User: Fold this.
Amino acid sequence: MAVLVLSGILVLAVGGCVCVVWAARGGPRWVRAIAAATLAAGELVRHTGRTSRSRRLSQGSDSDG
Assistant:
């Protein structure tokens, strides 16, 4: 079951990347919409990783001193 879920996530990620490239070359409107959603999801993941990393660093420095 987990393999199916991970395979589905992989297919969505690859499809999103294809849409980003296609939209950069002037694809149809629906491709540009999927590309925008893919880029927004990437920014969200990047921001979430950055905030959790900074939170861990601040917690570590508080406990040291």
User: Anything to note?
Assistant: The longest helix spans residues 29-64. The chain has a mean pLDDT of 88. The chain has two helices and no strands. The two ends are 46 Å apart (CA to CA).
